[in-house]
Structure formats: structure tokens, C-alpha cells
Amino acid sequence: MRRFFGNLVNNEIIINGEEYLHLTKVLRQKEGDKIIACIDDENDYYCTILKQYKNYCKCNIDKIEKNKSNPKKNITLFQMLPKKEYFDTIVAKSIELGVSNLEFFTSQYSSPMNIKKERLSNQIMTACKQCERSKLINANTPITFAQMLSKLKNYNLVLFAYEKSNEKFNFESLKDVDNIAIIIGAEGGFSENEKEEIAQKSVMLSLGTRILRCDTAVISLLTLVSYFSEN
Hints:
Structural class: alpha/beta
Mean pLDDT: 93
Distance between the termini: 24 Å
Low-confidence stretches: none
Radius of gyration: 20 Å
Strand order of the largest sheet: 1-4-5-6-3-2
Helix content: 25-40%
Number of strands: 12
């Protein structure tokens, strides 16, 4: 069944806006069709389309089941603002690999970029539908490096992907950690002062002898974290 995001109103699901256009114009869904609706909570709402109007449709809730694809742990990716060509991949793949929050941050060598909030929201919704998550992730406008550092105190474990690290990390220990932060740089890398400040608050680990592009690093580290944390 097709998956759509909507709103719960008087025990019915209302689907409108871009989601309704996608439902009717692209996927040709009609009254009587069965769909899965999501309202940004932990459940999947199995529905029947009751009535279609010009700009929205009403759906009857047939049954409610707990979503099986939402993350089981709280994992936040702190990503240095990358070049535009890597941005979309990072958003999509981090969602598919189980992050709960995505925080872009600026630094001394980060690339300037204007993030359009509406476009980012659409990317998040599309990625959540792709991997069958029912709850949307949090992704705000970029914060500063200092703000990023201040947020690290809220996590039980902070992992910093650093290509020159010689530390060995026991990934199997992640199954006992529920609140994890991951820090990944971008093309310009971090200044020496920034590296030192992060190192004081994190476990530094290398992803191998080859230098990875930032979007590749995101996929590599999140795959390991998601697997070993059983997320």
C-alpha cells in the first residue's frame, strides 16, 4: 500500500497539500483505495479513502499498528554544512539509516549555503516514506560550531569521525547506549582548534586509511552505528 502523511481530524485522516496532489495526480488513488497514512507519530494508520474533494481527501481508519521502521534509539547526526551537491544525499541516507535528528552546523572552513526550509521538509518527508518511517525527523537551520559543542552534553556517547585517529572503538558496545551523537566534517575539514575542542567531548575514530567524501562518511559510520546499536 502507498504511504502518505496527513493529519488526524475527528477520528479521520485528512490528506491535503502536496501529499494530496501526489495521491491523486501521480499515483491515481481514488475513493475506496487502501493506503497507509502517517501523522508524525509512532503508528501506521491503515485507511480507506472515503471521499475526495478538490484540495483534500478524507480517509477512514481501518486499523492502527505500531510502525516497525522508526528508530529504536536516539541518534543525532551533527554534520558540518557540506557543498550543495552532497546535501541531498546526506539528508536521505541519514534518514534511511535511522537518525532521529539532523543538525547542520557551520565552522571555520564550512561551505556557505542557503537551506530552504520548505525544500528540506519535503526531502525529509520523501525519505521517511521511502524507508517506511511514520515519524519525521528534526532538522533545523544550521547552528554555529559553538552551539553544536554545547549540545553534546545531552548525549551518552559522542562519536567523531576523524581520519587520523588511531583509537580502536568497540562498536558492539553500542547496543547498550540509547543516546548517541555523531559528528562528521565536510570538504574543508576542521581547524586544529576545532578538532581539539571536539576531541575533549568525544570518542575519535577513523573510518579507514582512505579519505572519504562527507556523504560517504555519513553512510559508512551510520551503517555501523545502526547495525551494532540494533537501531
